[in-house]
Amino acid sequence: MARHLTIILLLFTLPTFGQIKQCFCDKDTLMNGATVSCDTTTFKNNSKLYWQYNCDRIWLTLENSSGQKFVIDEVEVELYNLTYRLGYHLIKEFKESLLFRSGCPANGPCTYTLIDKANGKKLKEFDQLICIDTDIKWEHAHKYNFDFIVYLSNKSDNIIIYYVDSKRTLKVPFKENLTGIIPQHQFDEMTLENNILKLSYELDKDTKKTLKIELKNKKIQPLTAATPK
């Protein structure tokens, strides 16, 4: 009887053991306190996101609401202490997709990627975005509360506003000459109030300007006068 009870208990517990996340390396104990967190993030559609690691591998899994699992990112184990910079870091959940930041060198720029929440497929990839966790000084990172993303065109002659859920794009002419190594970093503030999007940025000679865009009617208001820093 005791033997049968033991077998029954094993049958119930084995699936649970199979689901345990791998989050430990016994060969390099420094890794256990210097790489990713294995906490699980659950999204509005019940998809889940979590990192795992062992001594040989570091990987990010997206598990959809049906229980299907997709490895959407991996980082070389030798770079375990740089996973937060190099690997996917969740920025924002949208209705059908997730926005991640990755590939950040010490001073940027980073890459931003939209991933489908249902199947883990890459939807779009962007270069450094504007006013969205732009620097790599993590203590200054901020939550992104907008339902769109903003970026510069390839020639920096347009500002692109992309509404992620509706896939609508608004292109705004931009005539300033941004001379920074990473021109997106010259934008230091973005606010939205009463459908007016304000983008503040710095130019040479310590001047600061603000571009106002009326999103509802797609109108561009004149640039504010240059002001000393």
Q: Round the mean pLDDT to the nearest integer and report it.
A: 84
Rounded Rg: 22 Å
Helix content: under 10%
Rough outline: globular
The unreliable regions are 1-18, 134-138, 222-229
Q: Which class do the helix and strand fractions yield?
A: mainly beta
The strand count comes to 16
**Proportion of strand residues:** 35-45%
Largest sheet: 5 strands, antiparallel
Query: N-to-C terminal Cα separation, in Å?
Result: 82 Å
Count of individual helical segments: 2
**Helix/strand order:** HEEEEHEEEEEEEEEEEE
Describe the structure.
This protein has 229 residues and is mainly beta. It contains two helices and 16 strands. The protein has helices at residues 2-18, 83-86, and strands at residues 41-42, 48-53, 58-63, 69-75, 89-93, 97-102, 111-116, 122-126, 148-152, 158-163, 168-173, 187-193, 196-202, 207-214, 219-221, 227-228. Strand 7 (111-116) and strand 8 form a beta hairpin.
